[in-house]
Amino acid sequence: MFLPWLSDEQKAEIKAQKESGSEKIGDKILEFFENVDASKKEEARTKLKAGCKHFLGHLIGETAAAEMKALKETGATDAEMAAQLEKVIGAMADGADKTKAEKMSKNCKKVYGVASRKRRHQHTLEEGFTEFLPWLTDAQKAELKALKESGGDDKLGEKVLEFYESVDASKKEEATTKLQAGCKHYIKHLIGDAPAAEMKALSDAGTSAADLSAKLVAIIGAMPDGADKAKAERLAKNCKKVFGVASRKRRHEHTLEEGFTWLWIESEN
Fold first, then answer.
1. From the CA atom positions of the chain, what is the Rg in Å?
2. Which of 86, 88, 91 is nearest to 105 (CA)?
3. Smallest Cα–Cα separation from 247: which of 234, 262, 232?
4. Among 10, 20, 80, 239, which residue has the fewest nearby CB atoms (within 10 Å)?
């Protein structure tokens, strides 16, 4: 009912796990989902969402399930639904059903693209210096530190871009490569693993750069209002300029908008 998109080989693997009493079936299904062919991605996501609703509804009980449904009908976002589900499961009596619900909820969040961001690694400025900004001078790094310490987090991206646009020609290529990697890394962190995987699958399927760009804009637009969405919007704006420079040099036929998304997805490979 919920897994018609699996190959016969994958179904056999799931069946073997079930017969062996494995508790990793959900993880295995998620693995298959994350790697499913782009042509089957939407079908797989739709089916898995239906499966999540069915099995979680059974585990949390009819009353709680009805309350969740009513909340959804008021226009609650997937992120708000996930937060409410956490509360419902947290209030369940300890036992097998609660354990199953916790495991299923974790995997279902990834299907819906709302895996908890507060559990993800919190990036530091020092890590950024090492991984993506080694081309900065000590004075520039000190300026970024001072900006952050003064509460200017929302201006850090613009300052980095300012340094990038005036970087010495001998460091331009290194700076471009590092910033492109940083854009990919941080945007993926902000939009979530499932949307990022979906973007990569679309790219692998040959989706046009314009369509990929529109998809990324839609993903960010659909994020719940808040700090992460604001960060993603600022990051996308600045990253377009970084990828725009590269796109004009490497792919003259692409527009600035197209070059940004096309190169970002390319850097996933």
1. 21
2. 86
3. 262
4. 20
Amino acid identity, position 262: W
Q: How many helices (H) and strands (E) does the chain have?
A: 14, 0
* Model pLDDT, residue 143: 92
Residue 136 confidence (pLDDT): 92
Give the pair of three-digit tokens for residue 242: 């970084």
Helix (H, G, I), strand (E, B) or coil at 187: helix
Q: What angle do CA 2, 5, 11 make, to 5 degrees?
A: 80
Low pLDDT (below 70) residues in the chain: 114-123, 209, 244-269
Helix/strand/coil for 166 = coil
pLDDT at 123: 59
pLDDT at 254: 36
| Average pLDDT of the chain, as a whole number | 80
At 114 the pLDDT is 58
Q: How many C-beta atoms lie closer than 10 Å to residue 106's C-beta?
A: 15
The rounded distance, in Å, linking the Cα atoms of 134 and 157 is 15
The residue written with tokens 């992460």 in the block is 228
Contacts of 114 (CB under 8 A, 6+ apart): 78, 79, 81, 82, 192
Place of tokens 């036929």: 253
Return the structure tokens found at 133: 């900004």
Angle at CA 195, nearest 5°, toward 190 and 198? 145
Interatomic CA distance for residues 14 and 8, integer angstroms: 10
Retrieve residue 19's tokens: 């017969």
